[in-house]
TrEMBL record:
It holds the Pfam family Retrotran_gag_2. Residues 251-264 form the CCHC-type domain. Residues 268-278 have a biased composition (Basic and acidic residues). Residues 206-220 have a biased composition (Basic residues). This is CCHC-type domain-containing protein. The keyword Metal-binding applies. One of its GO terms (molecular function) is nucleic acid binding. PROSITE patterns: ZF_CCHC. Keywords: Metal-binding, Zinc, Zinc-finger. The keyword Cell membrane does not apply. PANTHER family: OS04G0629600 PROTEIN.
Length: 384
């Protein structure tokens, strides 16, 4: 192990190390008090030993200051004076350290161990200039300058232990243990947030199943809906999408393959089919197209209009008087995209008038009293 070497930047540390070395070599009295009058021969040996240690522990710049000095005490005093200065300089430095000590507070991002090191470094420097600081003073300073998240730990320490009898390492260990728990909880919260974000992304991908359609937050105009559907109410296929194999389609009228019921020439009469079919794509080829996006007068409120919505999974209305065959036992909760929900107090069927005067029945319409709009679910219509 090498000897400590004095430079222009490590005076405080070198001073502490040299005092320990002098005590170990039993020459501390010679360095501080000089040669003793009794037993001059033994004292001279200790003085020479101390002077040798000082010469070995300084750099070239400091050695030039002491190379002509013949006693250990005089050599030591020169080094102390050149670094610590006189009494006035000591007072100025001590005042500066006191100011730093009083203004020092734990900052966001500081760890408990790092903050204890800052406090102890300043207090040791103050002790080097003659300031009397006890462990109790240091502990009280630390506990009143911690971050607010450690307040209840400080209260527990003050109530359960006598601060005047505590050592500095005792509150430090308690605070560091609490700090570790906070770090673990923050990691768990981050993991939960990441998992929640993954689930939300999956839900968004599921919601994009019906492309080109929009929720109630941005409704399409009648022109846009007419472009999305043909005159039979069927969704237009993308040019890149494969055409459906019509050879396997069975007609509901003649039960033959290769065509739909509305294309069948042997089907029922137009009038009878209008009475029986629900609100789906099964319309007579000669009937007028069903316009589901109802146009109302400016004086009519939103609560009396019907809106097509690709985002909702069920038909919904706030008009109980419109519902036929109302079933009050069919109760449920309707959940929206913002995680809010409303109560559905039952379900029934609604009769809608076509432009040609015929009627269409929309079944399984939920009664939601607090709904502001009447919604027709595109997904539910397509399923039928």
């Amino acid at each position: 192990m090498g000897l400590p070497i004095l430079t222009s930047k490590n005076w405080d540390r070198w001073l502490t190390q040299m005092k320990v070395m002098f005590r170990y070599q039993e020459v501390i009295e010679i360095v501080q008090d000089g040669l003793l009058p009794l037993d001059q021969s033994e004292a001279q040996k200790k003085d020479n030993k101390a002077l040798f240690l000082i010469h070995q522990c300084v750099d070239d710049v400091h050695f030039e200051k002491i190379q002509r000095v013949m006693t250990a005490k005089e050599t030591w005093d020169i080094l102390v004076t050149s670094h610590a200065g006189g009494d006035k300089i000591k007072k100025v430095k001590l005042q500066s350290l006191r100011k730093q000590y009083e203004l020092l507070h734990m900052e966001e991002g500081d760890k408990v161990g790092e903050y204890f090191t800052k406090i102890l470094t300043i207090t040791n420097q103050m002790k080097g200039y003659g300031e009397a600081i006890t462990n109790t003073m240091v502990i009280e300073k630390i506990m009143r300058s911690l971050l607010p998240r450690f307040d209840f730990i400080v209260v527990v320490i003050e109530e359960s232990k006598d601060v005047t009898l505590m050592k500095i390492k005792e509150p430090q260990s308690s605070l560091e243990a609490h700090e570790l728990r906070l770090v673990e909880r923050n990691l768990m919260k981050k993991a939960e947030l990441a998992l929640k974000a993954i689930h939300k992304d999956e839900d968004r991908r599921k919601d994009k199943k019906w492309k080109g359609k929009q929720s109630i937050n941005r409704r399409k105009t009648s022109q846009e809906w007419s472009e999305s559907f043909d005159k039979r109410g069927r969704s237009k296929l993308n040019h890149n999408q494969k055409k459906f194999d019509r050879s396997k389609v069975e007609c509901f009228n003649c039960h033959k393959l290769g065509h739909y019921s509305y294309e069948c020439g042997n089907g029922k009469s137009k009038e009878s089919r209008h009475k029986e079919e629900p609100l789906t794509t099964q319309e007579d080829s000669d009937s007028e197209p069903l316009n589901l996006m109802v146009t109302v007068a400016a004086t009519k409120s939103h609560s009396e209009s019907w809106y097509l919505d690709s985002g909702c999974s069920n038909h919904m209305t706030n008009h109980k008087e419109w519902l036929k065959d109302f079933d009050s036992t069919n109760k449920s909760r309707v959940k929206f995209a913002d995680d809010s929900s409303l109560s559905a107090e039952g379900a029934g069927s609604v009769v809608i008038m076509r432009e040609n005067g015929s009627k269409a029945i929309v079944s399984n319409v939920l009664y939601v009293p607090k709904m502001k709009y009447n919604l027709l679910s595109i997904g539910q219509l397509i399923e039928k």
